[in-house]
Amino acid sequence: MGRAGTYVKELAVMTAMPAAEPTRRDFLYVATASAAAIGAAAAAWPLLDQMNPDASTIAAGAPIDVDLAPIALGQVVKVFWRSKPIFIFHRTARQIAEARAPDWHDLPDPAPDSARVKAGHEQWLVVIGICTHLGCIPIAHQGNYDGWFCPCHGSQYDSAGRVRVGPAPNNLYLPPYAFLTERKIRIG
Prior knowledge:
With about 190 residues, the chain is α+β, with helices and mostly antiparallel strands. The protein has helices spanning about 1-20, 25-50, 55-60, 95-100, and strands at about 65, 75-80, 85-90, 125-130, 140, 145-150, 155, 165, 175-180, 185. It contains 4 helices and 10 strands; from the N terminus they run αααβββαβββββββ.
């Protein structure tokens, strides 16, 4: 009986010791697991990163933000979105009045000035700067209507981007855009 009691006592002492104090083996387990986790993350990163679109794809279709603050009153600025020129026109009160004056029902492509701008931001006109006739780039502040003149075939657009004279069948197209703040827009 004495012998069995000694064995139980020794077993209790042996099992209590390793749990209280870490050994080299515990350190090796933790170090190996950490190295495996870092290696798995390093191997997974290129696989996950290659699923993102490349820079040329992002540039071709991504929205662009434009700061309107440096654009002077009466100035037309050209930016590019999806490889298309976008005209941003900071219209004066006179240009807005001239765009609203004609009966828009009589125009070749009828559209009121209010349908060509965002409500509350009537001084800003944003259009795609490509002539709707054959795809030329019109020149700003030219022609009889203080808008754009296409030198290729003589189409003239007013300060609302509506075709007034010439072979162009449609008004200058409007890109999708929204005002982020009073002085910043996002095109696309």
